[in-house]
Design goal:
- The protein has helices at residues 57-60, 66-78, 116-125, 151-161, 178-190; strands at residues 7-11, 14-18, 53-55, 88-90, 96-99, 105-107, 129-135, 165-169, 197-200, 209-210, 213-214, 216-217, 224-225.
- It has 253 residues and is of the alpha/beta class.
- It has one domain (7-244): TIM Barrel (Alpha-Beta Barrel).
- The strands form five sheets. The chain has a five-stranded parallel sheet with strand order 3-4-7-8-9. The chain has a two-stranded antiparallel sheet with strand order 1-2. It has a two-stranded antiparallel sheet with strand order 5-6.
- Strand 12 and strand 13 (224-225) form a beta hairpin.
Length: 253
């Protein structure tokens, strides 16, 4: 099994038995009722319920490659996690190679010699969805190329690879405005031609309150929604710093 602990959380009247949730900062705690704008009546929201799956960071950090991700995909199926609703398999930081002379990002050719597109095809063949990681700054937390100044290029690239989920971090952003940064990437994802769930991580250095709520944007077709972050610790349930492990991730050694 990939996961060793079980958490039970009471959210309003509901009890959620969670084996694990996505990487830190996948969800945001809402102090007031969620405000949902511009929801398409023809398509369901991308996150009508909290997305669940596996993320590479807490266990492997930067030590990831395509063989590992394929092995995890197989394990998520054979262990029954996929059939229980844990369908997202997310690559965190350090999958990146370099940008080409036009500014488009490429995968690390040593770690992912077959390419992210081939890896995404394999993950999809298992009935899973695949996520990827980037950062609103000039570099990611692991020192790889960030998306600042390349938001539309990166969104197009992720869509062409078949990516279903983007975790968007906040390292190396200097004085950048958080609302501007996340809104820009959200617009880029909406125009990428593919439904990509947008998971932002801002560390509460700037307030992202809009109408009294914390906010996140779901990519494509103008659909906006706000995701819950379910925090297992007894202290205040709010948007916390990335390195405080905001989220529900627990893994075996």
């Amino acid at each position: 099994m990939l996961i060793s602990k079980r958490y039970t959380l009471n959210v309003k009247r509901y009890t959620l038995n969670v084996l694990f949730a996505l990487a830190p900062c996948a969800f945001a705690q809402l102090p007031q009722p969620v405000q949902v704008d511009h929801v398409s009546p023809d398509k369901p929201a991308l996150a009508a319920t909290p997305p669940m799956g596996w993320n590479s960071w807490n266990k492997f950090g930067c030590d990831i490659n395509e063989e590992l991700i394929r092995t995890v995909a197989d394990a998520m199926v054979s262990s029954g996690l996929r059939d229980a609703g844990y369908i997202y398999l997310n690559l965190d930081d350090c999958w990146h190679g370099e940008r080409d002379n036009l500014g488009f990002i490429h995968e690390d050719p040593t770690r992912f010699p077959s390419g992210i597109k081939a890896l995404a095809d394999y993950v999809h063949s298992k009935g899973l969805k695949i996520g990827i990681y980037s950062d609103a700054g000039s570099e990611t937390c692991g020192g790889r190329p960030g998306s600042q100044g390349h938001e539309y290029q990166d969104a197009i690239t992720y869509a062409s690879w078949g990516i279903d989920y983007l975790k968007y971090d906040w390292c190396n952003t200097d004085s950048r405005n958080a609302k501007e940064a996340y809104s820009l990437m959200a617009k880029a994802l909406r125009q990428s031609g593919r439904d990509i769930l947008f998971s932002l991580c801002e560390w509460e250095q700037q307030s992202l309150r809009m109408g009294g709520t914390y906010w996140a944007l779901l990519a494509h077709d103008g659909r906006h929604n706000v995701l819950l972050r379910l925090h297992p610790r007894p202290r205040r349930m709010a948007v916390t710093r990335y390195h405080d492990y905001c989220g529900l991730q627990r893994e075996t050694p």
